[in-house]
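Box 3.1. Reading complex inputs
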Amino acid sequence: MKGNKKISIKEIAELSGVSVATVSRVLNDNGRFSEETRKRVMDIIKEHDYTVNMAAKSLRVSKSKTIGVVVPDINNEFFSTVVLEIEKFFFEEGYSVFICNTSQNDLKEEAYFRSLDSKLVDGIICISGREDIPLGVIKRNIPIVCIDRKPKSGTNAIYVESDHYLGGFMATEELIKKGCKRILTLAKGKSLSVNKQRLQGYKDALIKYGFSVDENLIVKLNGNRSSFEEARDIVSYLIKKGIEFDGIFATNDWRAHGALVALQQNNVSVPEKVKIVGFDGISVSEFCYPPITTIYQDKKTIALEASELLYKLIIGEEIKGSRHVVIPVSLVSRGTT
Amino acid sequence: MKGNKKISIKEIAELSGVSVATVSRVLNDNGRFSEETRKRVMDIIKEHDYTVNMAAKSLRVSKSKTIGVVVPDINNEFFSTVVLEIEKFFFEEGYSVFICNTSQNDLKEEAYFRSLDSKLVDGIICISGREDIPLGVIKRNIPIVCIDRKPKSGTNAIYVESDHYLGGFMATEELIKKGCKRILTLAKGKSLSVNKQRLQGYKDALIKYGFSVDENLIVKLNGNRSSFEEARDIVSYLIKKGIEFDGIFATNDWRAHGALVALQQNNVSVPEKVKIVGFDGISVSEFCYPPITTIYQDKKTIALEASELLYKLIIGEEIKGSRHVVIPVSLVSRGTT
């Protein structure tokens, strides 16, 4: 027992044989250290009782070192991949990441914002969902970054998204360049900014290449069943009804795969008779047979951009540049075109 | 302003035109109610100031009304489906659910247990991962329920799992009954209880039907790449090497799909020349072409059993019956057998 001898965090670190950052993590009780390390640091701290407790306390009140990620559906690989990259980024910075799933339910979303706020998270990343953020339920002024979700004007929120318009354009252009003349699009009915942009890209590509936009070829799915099933059944229905088309732009990869299976089941050869382009670049597009040409969203960069922005806001750094970050998409050519 | 008139929660509920449960939720700030409801209730509360604040305070200290779910990989559909069912159950009971992804990293798991504990969650469900639970890092005595993870003996933990042994047995039996004589299994190298049980079921089915266990037909994948890619490449390799087999028991559906694609790419017809059975019953098994016969894990029942057990423990109800719950599996026959 050394009683009231003053001791600094640096000295604790030296005495325990770990870094200052590790001592800080142990004191904040928030990050990556083994049980052994914790014990070693705490033993040194106990030996020097009073003074260090003050230091620990002052560290403890600074930040909760947790963030929340609000996501509509972790069962969707695009979302879960982005969430995992965010988790990785923040864990490396010593943060815990609490993932909250809203199932696209507005009341749930409000409840989770409220709950994360009451748990004193240092910031929130919210992915997709409705356009406005339920800021009214948050009592503290904490930073929020959105992904694939355009906050209503007036809010000062920051958002990161793929270039959905260009993606829709490139997908349609690919089909046109491969000779398609009647291009069906399987779009999502819900009129979120993301869906509107992809559809506008499709229309503008048709017009640019001298085709007219045929509303009969724009199928809006209502999202009541899985993307795969909706797409499979509607494409089967259209084939049986005798609707002619030689290209399909599916606005996500599961829809593209549903279309592919419907064509195979109806003995329509892909890509000879009908070509398909999907969107997202998730495993199903790569791993089905034949693999599907798709518009690749750079999930890692999206997650990193959003994470870095949130991190800067949390530590009080200035955000230079735009508060709206657009990440490029790319065409991945595979067996269906 | 009615000043210090005493008022009960019941009266607040009547005056606000909502249920007692809703008033309680608003006071606890934890659950499902609209911003309008909150405002209405809070207005009544403000009118009756002092007395109700006491009630609010006493309610507030009772429970944090949050639980944590610790999961190795939300990008795995089996896990994410189970997590979503847990979330649904607890949200309906007025709880917020914080999902923590560990990427099968032990240090991360410890950090999340510590972090959930410091956020005062009322209980934790942990799915898969290593066999022991890092109880040492939790300071409070809160209930923990495990799924697909057999806690080391000595702990009093409760666990819920599918009948993995029977699943392995049924998969192999299906292949034998459909005429297979040389059955390859694509197993996971990591020797967790789940993997061991499925493999033992495979071996016991072979023996029961008079076959010998050929170690050359037991392929252990190391999990360094995706299940799909590992399975696809090893099956292609075995075909090229001339190893003979006419059945494949893949211990998850992505491995089954990888095997299917490898066979298709090598012009081996499925199910005529080689039959396949997967495990899990996730979308890829249903939606690939041909759809894959699989052992279906009842994800909803697994989640509900685990949730109900945790809920009972949280509210202090006695657990009758076993602390180890085994959920039946079933064979779903499809195009690959």
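In summary: Confidence is low (pLDDT under 50) at residues 50-61 of chain B.
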